[in-house]
Amino acid sequence: MASRRVSSLLSRSLMSSSSPFSLRGKDPLMNRGARRYSNLAASLEDTITPPVKVEQTQLLINGKFVDSASGKTFPTLDPRTGEVIAQVAEGDVEDVNRAVVAARKAFDEGPWPRMTAYERSKILFRFADLIEKHNDEIAALETWDNGKPYEQSAKIEVPMLARVFRYYAGWADKIHGMTVPGDGSHHVQTLHEPIGVAGQIIPWNFPLLMLSWKLGPALACGNTVVLKTAEQTPLSALLVGRLLHEAGLPEGVVNIVSGFGPTAGAAIASHMDIDKVAFTGSTDVGKIILELASKSNLKAVTLELGGKSPFIVCEDADVDQAVEMAHFALFFNQGQCCCAGSRTFVHERVYDEFVEKAKARAINRAVGDPFKSGIEQGPQVDSEQFEKILKYIRHGVDSGATLQAGGDRHGSKGYYIQPTVFSDVKDDMLIAKDEIFGPVQTILKFKNLDEVIARANNSRYGLAAGVFTQNLDTANRLMRALRVGSVWINCFDVFDATIPFGGYKMSGIGREKGIYSLNNYLQVKAVVTSIKNPAWL
Amino acid sequence: MAARRVSSLLSRSFSASSPFLSRSQGRNLNNGSRIVRRFGTSSAAEEVISPSVQVSYTKLLIDGNFVDAASGKTFPTLDPRTGEVIAHVAEGDAEDINRAVKAARKAFDEGPWPKMTAYERSRVMLRFADLVEKHSEELAALESWDNGKTYEQALTAEIPMVARLFRYYAGWADKIHGLTVPADGNYHVQTLHEPIGVAGQIIPWNFPLLMFAWKVGPALACGNTIVLKTAEQTPLTAFYVGKLFLEAGLPPGVLNIVSGFGATAGASLASHMDVDKLAFTGSTDTGKVILGLAANSNLKPVTLELGGKSPFIVFEDADIDKAVELAHFALFFNQGQCCCAGSRTYVHEKVYDEFVEKAKARALKRVVGDPFKKGIEQGPQVDSKQFEKVMKYIRSGVESNATLECGGGQVGDRGYFIQPTVFSNVKDDMLIAQDEIFGPVQSILKFSDVDEVIKRANDTRYGLAAGVFTKSLDTANRVSRALKAGTVWVNCFDVFDAAIPFGGYKMSGNGREKGIYSLNNYLQVKAVVTPLNNPAWI
Fold first, then answer.
1. What are the catalytic residues (chain A) (predicted)?
2. pLDDT by residue (tens digit) across B116-167?
């Protein structure tokens, strides 16, 4: 019930044309104080102390929290200030090896793949209940480590986490093989078996949601897991790792290693005893992961990578709704979404009106301490991202795009950036080609459908697209022509557990969520026996 | 009807106790086969039979036309019976791959192929299957000539299977459904299963046309266009069926065929930025290179069907005569040149001695000779490189102290014929028990109990297939689940019906071909979401 309520809350917030997702409508007075990004006061105010204590900072290996083999730690920072939240164990090759040994044992000798699917599902259901019980604590940790608004964490992401695990718990006892028609006297069946030990490498932009997309199907299918978190956001996974074991997960089934890509991540991708690796992150790193798999044991690889998703506003669209959704599509989560609608194509007839309103909406965006109620936008995750985005903003200005709003840092501490809007963007500008991963909207003008289809598809990426139109023919045509894994028509960022997500082209390989994600964690075995005197063939 | 008849012929031959070719051997005991029977005789030195087919197509098939390589270069394709040149074939290189991709790109992006109805696409494929049957004798002769496999095998098993596979996939073309999806709120959600685009396909030389069918069938059914590279050892039959496809009404550019070498044409296909998907069948080492090229170019999804070292496990309760015959077939079929060859024959200690004796006797009886001669079971290996490699492994077996029960040398003094070779007392750590030999060399190993044999069978980097021989349902059920292999044949082997998925665990590959599973390799999934106003239900 609770889960149903929160996910329908999520859906409603996305449906409503005026204020999707963000909760700024609810508390206009709170908003107002933090609203204008030119008002430096917001981020200079006293930093709110998060209502949570950091308890788990060690690696989770074989059901126990342990120090890294080297004894090394690294600091995880508060993006609001750049100050240290906690020192976290730094996993390296040796720790990945230990984790793989534990996962291997839990798979090869059981108990995990030897438990009934029903027993596995009950553990996942209990885990979802524990997530709900600890909702606020988990949300606070996620916000503290990542910088995203607490309201977004507490009301959307953590409830979604429980929802995704309940979805996959329901799959555990519904994984069917097939019986297969033979061409002769043979009885043929297929078994859908767990692959074995899955290596999973998750990003920092939605730490727990990405954990659920990866762990959910892997566990439902009977695999064991070595999961590496992003070095920017190691904390929340360790907390839910503890809850997984409270829910009854046997030791060794899920092992969590904090650490860095070139060390711990590379060790996972090239490990000879890992049977599958799933990675979410940048396209450049995805290429490395796939290459490491090719050079080691040819483990199967699924990749969820970058994007430069078009958001297409046709001339017949409801412009106010399109402005709001285009704003949401880009600025949500500080612009740190792989599927961000980062090329806003607007039909020439509505272009001027759209740009004016998009600018006004961006200027109204409430930036500030993510723990403050009513805040829409917190800081970027770290200084590297912060610097990269400011570099792209300079690029935009240098290449002659029109800076309509923003363009600079917000405040003087932490990694806040002003909501930034460029108009008159051309396809060949760097800001229209590269994934910026920050609060920078680029608006481009188009004249007709043929042209916008060609331009929208002229990208190495193919993750998602938004289409705004009232016309059924236009919607039907664009939904087929766009070479992307998700098309949101008159909506954006709808992320129900059942909807597959993934990329065409260099945005990735494979699909997560929905029924499609199960394939990533199953091997197909054909079993053939001869039949004597068959009653039918 | 015809297809049904020939495929059931094929199945019968597989399920009969003397599978596949031994039947014809039995029939011809009193005539010609006896002359060539024992590999010690001079069979291979006899006069070479002239194949009853002309080589008509030796150029690249690009955009519906047969054309020379851009460089003008050609390479010889050799007759494995003699090492002599059959024909000079256009040698495709990066430039030709570029031309082929351009044609395939156009046929995909501008149509007509993905813009035709699925029903129209299926009819082109059905007409093609009819043409394959009509030309089955020429195709079989060409396949046998270029590869060295027996003509009877090509004619009665493989070519009919090519037609059967294309009819199977023609039937899928108009049955590719997306889903409508339950949402958590007021949304209408659907998934579209779309063609990926231009598929690059690289096929091996051991079953040139069957591998063509496994790859081209699902790709076309799903609406993709293709650039296919054949193996340099066996370029001829693919061109011939390429011509038949044009006759069947396939639009130009939909299927482009480039003959050439892996390091040039193959590598440029794998690393091409405008190829959207790659499927490769071949060795594990090359598979790793292919995947690395995909990773370093445009991240095209890759399916791989690679090597194997498949266990064939004979339990103490098995029907020994049948197990001997099928173990023989599992290894020696197609000159031992099968990725799924049952190349580790594990025999329970209680029946081991009897099995070895009978396996040796069966190998000694194997009929080796000119593959165009009736009753022949085994032709030459495909080329000198494979021949040398197999001989090297035989020496390695002897040096590592396995017992050479029979064979071990060349047959005759010309071409690439090898004596059916059986080693007993093979240990797991010997090279011949670990590496893929890809030749007529059977390795027999002894085991004591189920736990032990499961462990030993799984102790390999490969996981392609396995054979299990037992009468016990409990043993069959337990071992079927425990073996880490993509296919488990229980009391049978090499059953390759169109509907049965095939592919590897571990380093034997990624993905599955044949059956419903192969469609995924050639489809992209697109989720489409729209809001619902005032829905009657959610």
1. 304
2. 999 999 999 999 999 999 999 999 999 999 999 999 999 999 999 999 999 9
Assess contact for A366 and A38: CB atoms under 8 A. Answer: no
- The reply to whether B188 touches chain A by the CB within 8 Å rule is no
Q: In the CATH hierarchy, which top-level class contains the domain A59-305?
A: alpha beta
Which chain B residues have a beta carbon less than 8 Å from that of A7?
184-185
**In whole angstroms, what is the distance from residue A82 CA to residue A136 CA?**
23
Given the cut 0.90, state whether the ipTM is greater than it: no
Identify the CA nearest to B379 among candidates B337, B441, B344: B337
Please give, rounded to a whole number of angstroms, the shortest distance from the CA of A182 to a CA of chain B: 6
* A291:B512 CB<8 A: no
Q: Which residues of B touch A287 (CB under 8 A)?
A: 295-296, 299
Domain extent at residue B398? 310-485
Tens digits of residue pLDDT in B294-349: 999 999 999 999 999 999 999 999 999 999 999 999 999 999 999 999 999 999 99
The CA distance from B308 to B305, in Å, is: 9
Give the B window 239-268 contacts with A, CB below 8 Å. none
Interchain CB contacts (distance < 8 Å): A and B: 227
Q: pLDDT tens digits for B415-426?
A: 999 999 999 999
Within 8 A of A186 by CB-CB distance, chain B residues are: 11, 15, 492, 495, 497
Q: Whole-prediction pTM value?
A: 0.90
Q: Report, at the CATH architecture level, how domain A310-498 is classified.
A: 3-Layer(aba) Sandwich (3.40)
**Residues B234, B320 share a domain:** no
SS3 A247: coil
Residue B509 counted as domain residue = no
Catalytic residue among A151, A304, A376, A435: A304
CB contact under 8 A, A180 and B499: yes
The answer to whether A487 contacts B529, with C-beta atoms less than 8 Å apart, is yes
pLDDT tens digits, A400-436: 999 999 999 999 999 999 999 999 999 999 999 999 9
B531 in a domain, yes or no?
Answer: no
The C-alpha atoms of residue B409 and residue B419 are separated, in whole angstroms, by 6
Give residue B46's pLDDT.
Answer: 66
Q: What are the structure tokens assigned to B39, written together?
A: 């590999």
Answer yes or no: are the C-beta atoms of B82 and B383 closer than 8 Å: no
Pair (B366, B464) in one structural domain: yes
User: Do B402 and B346 reside in the same domain of the chain?
Assistant: yes
Does residue A324 have an active-site annotation?
no
